[in-house]
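Summary for the steering committee. The consortium agreed at its last meeting that each partner would contribute one worked example illustrating the joint modelling workflow. Our contribution is presented below. We chose a case with several input lines so that the handling of multiple components could be demonstrated. No manual editing was applied between input and output; the record is shown as generated.
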Amino acid sequence: MERQGGGVILGLSLAGLVVVVALPIFFVVLQAVFPHLTDSSFAAPFSAFATALADPRLPELFGNTLMLGLGVAAGCLLLALPLAVLRGMTDLPWGGLWDLLLLIPFMIPPYIGAFAWVLTLQPSGYSTQLLGFDAGAFLFSLPGIVVVMTLHLFPVVYFALSRTLAMIGRRFADVGRVSGASPFYAFWRITLPLSLPGLAASLLLVFALTIEEYGTPSALGKRSQFLVLVTSIEEKFAEWPIDLPGAAVLSLGLVVLALAAFLLQNWIATRRSYVAVSGKHGQMAMIELGRWRWAAVAFCAVVAGFAVVLPVGAVVLTAFSETLSGGLSWANMGLRHFESVFANETGAMDALVNSLWLAGVAAVGAGLLGSLAAYVTVRSQMRGRGLVDGLSILPNALPGMVIAVGLILAWNRSWWPFPVYNTPIVLLLAYICLLLPYPVRYVGAGLRQVGASLDAAARVSGAGMGRTMWKVLLPLIAPNLFVAMLLVFAIASRELVASIMLAPSGMPTVATYVFNQFSQGSPGEGMALSVLAIFSSTAILVALGALYKKTER
Amino acid sequence: MIRTTLGLALAATLFTAGAAGAQQITVYTAGPAGLAKNLAAGFEKKTGTKVSVFQATTGQIMARLAAEKANPQADVLISASWDTAVDMKAQDQLLAYESPNAKTVPAALKDKYYVAQGAAALAMIWNPKSGKPKPTDWSDLAKPAYKDAVTMPDPASSGSAYGMVSGLVSHPSYGWKTFEALKANGMIVPGANAQALNPVMQGAKAAVMGGVDYISLGAKAKGEAIEVIYPSSGTVLESRPAMILKTTKHVAESKQFMDYLLSDEGQKLVADTYLLPARTDVAAKRPGWKEIKLLDVGESTAQKRNETLAKFKTTMGLK
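What follows is the complete predicted structure of the assembly.
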């Protein structure tokens, strides 16, 4: 009985992962090995490797990519750790508000966020117009890129860590305190080590997201000649003549980097047990901040100010500015760009509707597949679970562009019995593939803290495999799963790079629309749709969150 | 999972059914944004054939075509870079077609296999609020007044900027020394056209060297304080070729679409975007064939392109 149930879950998750992840990656590898694959020829195998590896820029590309990834991961840790401790372990006022605010960075498309920073900090930008200073030299440098990307990505760590800390609760720390440890010592030796799997998993996500991210490095890095692997891959894709094999080879380089990070994270997460919940949730006692309350609130407010208010403010200002050259003045404010967006002359509203439903379906799909994969990885001892684990994190290492090409190569074949390519399905496959690591990591971190003794207890009491998952495990991991699905929704609703390559003709998404408006010199309309997209997806998430809280009670 | 699968299967069936219905052609096109949509709507109204549009930058379109080679999707391609048409013809990927409507298109802008839909000229885009003197020729931007105040689109990502570079460097009175002087004067190359234009619109920089003119003319018409200046010694025209792919399964409809592009109606839609219509007998909403002085530019080849781009990189200190 148990074997069977486990086998079904393993089979389902493997089948899902093969279709969603392995297939496109397999075709990318094929393309790297056989440069003439697109001509349906297997001639000259491995010749693209020699060309790509002979590129004298290669060491620099790898070095820069590594520096950027580590820098942003370190920045996220510094910023998110104190926030998560405040949120997860103390009676910090307005906890829900901070959660909501810190979800917003996910909904700002990276290239729009970077553009907002440019508009704010470049000479004659908004900071010059309002405060009389600019920081262009800083912005267009490695530290500038690290800061902008950190402010965009630290919520990944914040959400994972604050949930994990809350789950561990203070019970363990209290035991330590009773045994005579100081509060700091108890945190350092008990709570923090127990939260390591969640922390390591989220830092891995940040690292992987950083090295595959295209928007920010290309918008900010080009001027200081700070090139990374992904900008170089994009060059090979988008600059005529197109070099698909070269791009595929470089992508494999990215995969190697991400796999190395994955192995490190895996080693941290599995070298010992982190089980913290072996029974019913205890009533959690929060640390009372006392007179430090308002200092803590001020800290959160400053972080939210830089991560949310400032970039969103720049986006909103630009959307309401009749012209960019007119600057910030009342005379220059107006609704023209919004009128044009609502009139749907250039298809803005179609794009918004498309993006919202695609993101919704992707969130459900990624949530289901991700939970199954996480369950197999964490709970089962079956052979094949390592494969499931590896496959589920792999997409994180691949730039969206590469997944997109893999999907085209795989699905744009006349021998499929039904069309996938050039339909919305291929976009959904891309989103689920790219965003699968979120549910896998978040749910996995949650499962690691739920003792297997709970499953056993349920089984002994006569519950079957499915019932155990549904009645015992699901409620316990639901907070993590829910957050992960929200993230998938938020990111899918504004994904750019894969969308550009895969959007079926005649089906614009928010990101492709905005990008086109930008490249046609109409940033105002692009920003107006961005404002609508950011606020509508936030509203949907808030509504879902409220609904979820209600059903939880 | 099961529900998703069912949903996907259902969606797939719906899409197959949809595609099998009315006649449809697929057009891959570079910007401007509204134009493709208007052309598609006009063509459908006229012929009943639906047009499915994929619009992106020329680079993204070419990448998609390359990845789709195993099972091509596009019927008609409109690129923003003349070279792509020349190259695709050389690779035998195009279907020969000469539209009867192309009679008044200048000979240099048509071939048996492709024809310009319209053209854009390269210009200096100047922000009058910048406090810098109004430039009149390319060389002004290398003068001390423009120290650290100039941007230029990257010719590697902007086909039109490449046209300008290859034109200027092969011209006796310019050559590479022009770009060396611009580099010494602190000119930056921040990316494609929009990335070069935005700093100038906001005032971070004063002028674009070789911005594509129709985008700026459009922005100016919407009230942006920028001026489009055609250099006195001459500039380069970047024509936007339209072509039918050899792999099309809709030959008749694709030819009809080419005819429509070059019809009075189609060309008027082109003119509305501030592009120069390819047909000389259709009125332009902007400086036209007679007003812009052109530099004499030789044919470009893929080999020459790679060399020029490499030389540009080293000259500008790009990696």
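Chain B is about 40% helix and 20% strand. Residues 2-119+238-277 of chain B form a domain with the D-Maltodextrin-Binding Protein; domain 2 fold (CATH 3.40.190.10).
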